[in-house]
Specification:
By secondary structure, this protein is α+β, with helices and mostly antiparallel strands. It has 23 helices and 14 strands. The two termini are 45 Å apart. Belongs to the SusD family.
């Protein structure tokens, strides 16, 4: 696919982060002067491209903000459990045990504010430009660039405040004397209110995807609408706070010092109405649709091919092959050994999915086998050997170690395959992170309609012609082939007709099935104040299913080829007890989740790994929601000690850090 920035522009975006200040000053002395840049549409376009270049860094969206900042949830886990759930590194952060001295927190803060600083420069420059005057031939083009900068700045701020909570809001470029480079925190509600105003403007300036060759590798009008809705719904939701706010509702599950609160009923209603307005704009535009095939959409993403037919993805952050993106390396199906089929064992598979999540899918839901990979790719001998073909090997009793199958080497491009067969070290996949899919829009819409109308089947003014149930049905039924479509329809029809029941059984569950591994689940659970509850429920579900025989002790399966290199996953006896299997009908078998031992007190999965999961958030007692935790519902990350030290006294940590 055609990428919107060249290697030169990407390098410029990275080099632009060099600075004499360790805090918010991100100007580069090599920049052209502002008047020259913003008197030219060409130079302005290059300046905007630098924003996309900034999103290609490891500490922004090439790795962290697409993968590791989004875990853990009730279905997605970081690897390295048990003794590996320590404070240093991603494992500590994923399990909410992070150290304030972790240097990556510093680098993430600096890199993300670097993008914001560049966006501030662009926004100021365009607003002052003589080209951005109605009647000027360049007005519309410069307006588009302004819309891109406003939207990207909003996206970055939104991601940061969900990660850190209250942060400084800086909306102007740093002065040469650094007089405005050091700032105190701004209440995140104020930040979100400001971002929504910016996005209202951006929706008027940006083109729709597909107009005049404008692709979803740019922020689009549809994405600006949907991001505004997402921010409004987050603003209406729960958040842990440094202190209580007047007029806000405190959750039943809340820390006594750092309360978890949401706005009052009237303010929430207004925010949901705002979200509904913008979600409706996307739906009625017809510019974005669901790809009828869930699997094909992920095949295209792995192929680095834009979906120009359905444009299901409202915005994909553009990456550059062999230069940026760890999708398919840090997350995805893991290649554990060098082999003749794929070459280098170029993956780490840091993000894992769970046994209860795998078994939550309906048997004919095609999303299960796309999303969950209960296997690894290795060699017949299990050794690094490029003379041997690759084979799929089941993961056996790994209930918290299933890979995310949405990024799959079997779907990656011929270029990637050819290069991977030649190299012997890590190389970047270039796969775009997807910031918003049309299925997000539909489920957000279903949530808003259910909330405002008081149930899934009622209507509400100024909607898109769909009830909440109908919007959810579009997402759920897409996941079933024609043979089983009636089964999907019956499931949607069976969902509760009351608001709370439909929310819990429909929206919350569909969110898990549709988006696992993509980085949405954790933050939706947070705004619903369900993160702790759902993690606790996942642990209890695993123990219950282990006891009630949901998991066989062994599974049996066949292969799709004579060389036994590929497993026929349609043949696996996922749901059949061992004693009911005719072993002669199958070519192979392996131990499965049911092998875990509930009684001995020494089983690694039950007694070591399970208690360690998210222990900083829920404690390490599987029969308690929060035994021994420092602060209830502390899902936020701390500001690093280095950033605090460099802030000249403006910043400090809260929440017991």
């Amino acid at each position: 696919m055609k990428k919107i920035f060249s290697m030169m522009i990407l390098s410029a975006g990275i080099l632009g982060l060099s600075s004499c200040s360790d805090f918010l000053d991100q100007n580069s002395p090599s920049e052209m002067n502002q008047t020259t840049v913003y008197n030219s549409t060409y130079y302005t376009s290059l300046r905007v491209n630098k924003l996309y270049g900034g999103m290609g860094q490891d500490r922004t969206y090439s790795q962290d903000w697409s993968i590791t900042t989004n875990i853990n949830s009730d279905i997605e886990l970081v690897d390295g459990l048990g003794n590996g759930a320590y404070e240093a590194g991603n494992r500590g952060a994923g399990n909410y045990n992070v150290s304030t001295g972790w240097s990556t927190l510093t680098d993430e803060w600096t890199a993300m504010y670097g993008i914001i600083e560049d966006a501030n420069d662009i926004i100021e420059g365009i607003r002052q430009s003589p080209l951005f005057v109605e009647g000027n031939d360049s007005y519309q083009e410069m307006g588009r660039y302004l819309g891109e900068a406003l939207t990207i700045r909003a996206m970055v701020y939104f991601d940061m405040l969900r990660y850190w909570g209250d942060i400084p809001m800086k909306l102007e470029t740093s002065q040469p004397d650094l007089s405005n480079a050091f700032m105190a925190k701004t209440d995140r509600d104020v930040i979100m209110d400001t971002l929504m105003v910016d996005l209202e403007e951006a929706t008027k300036l940006l083109p729709w995807a597909g107009e005049n060759g404008y692709t979803t590798e740019h922020v689009t009008k549809g994405y600006a609408h949907a991001l505004l809705a997402q921010i409004a719904m987050t603003r209406a939701g729960y958040a842990i706070r440094e202190k209580a706010k007047d007029g806000y509702e405190t959750a039943s599950y809340s820390d006594p010092v750092y309360p978890t609160q949401r706005p009052g009923a009237e303010e929430r209603k207004a925010l949901y109405e705002k979200a509904l307005k913008h979600l409706t704009a996307v739906i009625v535009s017809g510019k974005h649709q669901l790809n009828p095939s869930f699997e094909n959409e992920w095949y295209l993403i792995n192929q680095q091919t834009l979906d120009l037919t359905y444009q299901e993805n409202l915005f994909e952050i553009p990456m550059k092959y062999n230069v940026t993106s760890e999708l398919g390396y840090t997350i995805g199906v893991r290649i554990t050994k060098d082999n003749a089929t794929f070459g280098n064992g170029n993956s780490s598979g840091k993000v894992k999915l769970t046994a209860p999540f795998f078994y939550s899918y309906k048997q004919n839901d095609t999303r299960r086998d796309v999303t969950v990979a209960p296997y690894e790719i290795t060699t017949t001998s299990g050794s690094d050997n490029r003379a041997e073909q690759a084979v799929e090997k089941m993961l056996k009793n790994a209930p918290f170690g299933l890979y995310v199958g949405k990024w799959n080497p079997r779907w990656m491009s011929e270029t990637w395959l050819s290069d991977n067969q030649k190299i012997d070290s890590k190389h970047m996949t270039g796969i775009n992170p997807v910031k918003m899919r049309y299925s997000n829009v539909l489920l957000f819409y279903a949530e808003c309609m259910n909330e405002l109308a008081g149930g899934p089947d009622a209507t509400y003014p100024d909607n898109a012609g769909l009830t909440a149930r109908q919007a959810l049905a579009l997402v759920h039924e897409r996941a079933y082939d024609d043979e089983h479509k009636a089964e999907a329809q019956a499931y949607v029809a069976s969902l509760p007709s009351d608001k709370e029941g439909f929310f819990n059984d429909g929206i919350v569950q569909e969110n898990a099935w549709e988006f696992a591994g993509e980085g949405f689940r954790k933050y939706d659970l947070i705004r619903w104040n369900l993160l702790v509850q759902k993690i606790y429920e996942f642990k209890q579900t695993y123990l219950r299913q282990l006891a009630d025989g949901t998991y066989p002790e062994k599974v049996f399966f066949n292969y799709t080829d004579d060389s036994k290199s590929r497993i026929d996953f349609s043949s696996v006896t996922w749901y059949t007890p061992v004693e009911e299997v005719n072993e002669a009908d199958y070519q192979d078998s392996c131990d499965w989740f049911g092998k875990a031992d509930l009684e001995s007190g020494t089983d690694t999965q039950v007694n070591t790994n399970l208690p360690s999961i998210c222990s900083g958030l829920v404690g390490n007692d599987v029969n308690s929601m929060d035994a021994g935790v420092a602060v209830k519902n502390r899902y936020l990350m701390p500001i690093s000690l280095t950033t605090i030290s460099d802030s000249q006294g403006y910043l400090s940590n809260s929440y017991g850090y």
